[in-house]
Amino acid sequence: MNLYQNYVALLGVTLESPDSMILRGKVHLLCGNSLLRAPSYQHFNGKSKSLFEIFPNCECRQRLAPLFKFGSLKYRERDGLQNVFRFWLAEEGHVFQIQQHYAERLKKLMGVGDDHRDGAFDWDLNMILKGRQSQQISSQAGNIDSTKSTEYRYRRETGIAFTYPEYEYSKPNKTAAGPVHYAGNYIHRAYVDDMQTGPFSACGLISTDERLLLSTHDQNDYRPIDVTEDNLLE
């Protein structure tokens, strides 16, 4: 269900009229970061509100969102989907601490190797990903807040893969959250998205514009976000 609800929301953003959201804005929203820009967050909140309101109304849903067919879903699944749309809405006094949830899950996944996570991240990048034609993922610092972290390492540490120096990323991306079972029947929402490969491989590794793939002394001239934006804007 978590993937299903994400497809619904992201398709809604992708098919948004250019009059209400330009293509560059869609690129910024669909980057797959754990944190979003405030304008992107507000736009997504409005989209979630629309989905929450039209979902129970079959006639309204067919008129405003004919692309989506929910007839095969069970009533319990429909209730679960609507609860997710409600969770995505901004609620005053309640902030989903996605960075805290990300850090907790990362520490659990690293286990006894948590004290040496930097070495593990560098190994994954240089020995695994770059052996699979992922040279565009840079070993250089790629974030405005971290001059010591590599672009890939910063993503593994924070869940933030793509950044623009002129923007602030401060709002939780709730599409990366999902139900997690704890002791007994207690269910809590936490970070459940990918924590290793990241969104780099989707559109950020190859380009028809060879200029974007140039490098000097193993330092890329352009970042995966630049390649991604160019591919999506073609």
From TrEMBL:
GO biological process: axonemal dynein complex assembly; motile cilium assembly
Annotated transmembrane regions: none
Pfam families on file: DUF4471
Name of the protein: Dynein assembly factor 3 C-terminal domain-containing protein
Organism: Glossina morsitans morsitans
Annotated Dynein assembly factor 3 C-terminal domain residues: 69-233
UniProt-listed PANTHER family: DYNEIN ASSEMBLY FACTOR 3, AXONEMAL, DYNEIN AXONEMAL ASSEMBLY FACTOR 3
